[in-house]
Sequence to fold (896 residues):
Amino acid sequence: MQVPSKYDASQVEGKWYDYWMKHNYFHSEPDQREPYTIVIPPPNVTGVLHMGHMLNNTIQDVLIRRARLLGKNACWVPGTDHASIATEAKVVAKLKEQGINKNDLSREEFLSHAWDWTHEYGGVILEQLKKLGCSCDWDRTKFTMDDNMSESVIKVFVDLYSKGLIYRGFRMVNWDPEAKTTLSDEEVIHEERQGNLYYLNYKILTPTLFEGEGVGTNSAPSKELGDEYLTIATTRPETIFGDTAVCINPNDERFSHLKGKKAIVPLCNRVIPIIEDDYVDVEFGTGCLKVTPAHDENDKNLGGKHKLEVIDIFNDDASLNSFGLHYEGKDRFVVRKEIAHELEEKGFLVKTETHTHKVGTSERTKAVIEPRLSDQWFLKMEELVKPAIASVLGEDAEINLYPKKFENTYRYWMENIRDWNISRQLMWGQQIPAYFYGDGKEDFVVAETIEQALDLAKEKTGRANLQVLDLKQEPDVLDTWFSSWLWPMSVFDGIRNPENADIKYYYPTNDLVTGPDILFFWVARMIVAGYEYKGEKPFKNVYFTGLVRDKQRRKMSKSLGNSPDALKLIEEYGADGVRVGLLLSSAAGNDLMFDEALCNQGKGFANKIWNAFRLIDGWEVADFEQPESSKIAIDWFEAKFQDTIATIEDHYSKYRISDALMDTYKLIWNDFCSWFLEMIKPEYQKPIDRVTYNAAISILENNLKILHPFMPFLTEEIWQHISDRTSEEALIVSKWPELRSANKALISDFHFASEVISGIRTIRKQKNIAFKDAIPFFVIDSEKGNKVFDTLISKLGNLESIQYVDAAVDGALTFRVKSNEYFIPMAGAIDVDAEIKKLTEELSYTEGFLKSVQKKLSNTRFVSGAPEAVVASEKKKEADALAKIETIKTSLASLH
Fold:
């Protein structure tokens, strides 16, 4: 094949991806080899490729391609998550554009629209991953709403319910008023926000004047006694419509006279009791609080303890309902502003103070969460998590987290676990398999199918005449995480068919690569599910990537406009360039400060390797004796390669992927391109011997193998150019280089020799000694080192000869490496007149510079007024200039 003069990623990447797909290299079936399995963290079906996906999937592809080269049966299972909240929101928005209201549709009609949307847009991100080079087993692509995946989810729900681990309860939950669904505690992000503390006056009444009146009445008091008020501080004045008590601390003497009395809620005139409880913090606000059991977890607990009425004042979109009187239908935050104004007008608002407090927001929609009482489905977690805690944190832990620091986060979550709210008030998702046959809260059965449910309902009720039409399925769906927590098992059909060949071969999987933000949402829950349903870990190692941030350390987001278009980056720099750019500064668990220049560096690396290949490819090859310099160069690089690959293997074992890339990068750029090729390069317009050429090709191929996981397209392109390959000989399925012991002494000797070569080249450059001119070279060998590299020193320094001497050579330019001293005689080596002219000009400039510095230092105003560091800097300049002048004068003296 003709080798193009320039590497063009756009002409290469699609070609080789199609080639790999055509030859089925990504596909895996169980066989006699050792399996290596990764399951992709399924991106939202709504998603498009962003920088986090790029980093995460690049790392997975590096691991899977390396495993393939190691001869393992590599299986990377791709797929997408149905993302209940995000997808339903997009479908609702699309319907709205078409003038359709979700509430006007039946469940079947809405799901039809959702599936249409999924089929149209759902595969976008997986196609984009192909552009990145991801070698997933696309034949195994899964979607969490596939029939077999959903069947697995339902089977697990029924099983957990039958074990008594799932229950339905009326509890305070986190309500997302934008998505109009509950969220689990873990899906709520608590943010510090600045708000206001409103001090409100509640009128005090005596109980004797209200005999017969029920607590919670909205009637105005028939008679008032005195003008005593109780001042209460609240951050949410709009919730006064749900107040059913005022609470004081029984030990607070300031309010002891209020025991047994009642108060009137401002505006709505509801009469409520004043109760006592030591829960009240006497130091916060005014030392007493309003109790709204329907809208605060702690207030709910107080309400239950004191048997208070519960009044829900919000609609499902967090607008006020009829209890909000003239504010009915208005959003809670609008009401907050308006009610504060009304309370002030009517004399109830005493004062307002700024106040910083934590506010719960939805992890998905970013809406402020509203605490709400409702019937929901919960999974008991306390017993389920015990094997998962031991597997990561126990003495015989069998799951490793990288970096290890995340064990502390894991411990915190798992040891403070609460029951998991698994029901969501949505249509898109697996519908909970509970079937109601009556109006009572316990009038339901749980079964995998409605036919099974009917049999259970007949048995439970004794009503043989019950029919399917008498059953009504729970409308709620399951939390999306309740399907994805089964992912490592369900992708291999391990729930429905626990003894099938795939699950027995591929499970447990090897490595999981994901972000630390879903450590609990997904990672911990998969571990829990793995032990519950397979009795063993779902994976052995978890590698946590960092977050991708911009150069200002800001998290990348659409709203900030600081997130580059992933596909445009690939178009500009090539997939290999982007992969290298991402990994060069991405240490495990540490955030990546993304700079597009890194991608350009990756592109430059690709060009460097391409040009190195073109250099070798362009050499004429002939049969003659191999030069000694080439032989030692090959021996050295083989040693260096083995030493580097041992280091790389260690990096891989510790999941230091970017370190593995950096050592590969330095080996190829510095050792191969900059040193090795120079060592073996034939003289101008002369051939290279066949032995050296063949060794160079072999070395290049080994370099391509270890680079392939990082830069798959470039390496395959060069590999295929080197010689005509069969499909069985493609680089992607070649063999990882064999690890052997490295000759450390040879590496050390070359390092010494390279410093000598650099010293010669420095003098040539400084003294304008043309490289075409061979020069004599003398050495005082105090180190008594190995002279094996002398032929290379002579070649790369273009020396007439290397002569070992016992004393310094007069009239020579000199440099040192360790205790060795090296001499290049000036006679004949340099143009003396030109050197004298150059040094004289340099002396004149330096003396002028010294004069200006000394003038400044002689200025007492400057010395006394300038900062100490500035004065010290000027004194250092003076000392440096004096030393330089002395050196130049010495050099001039030796030339005369």
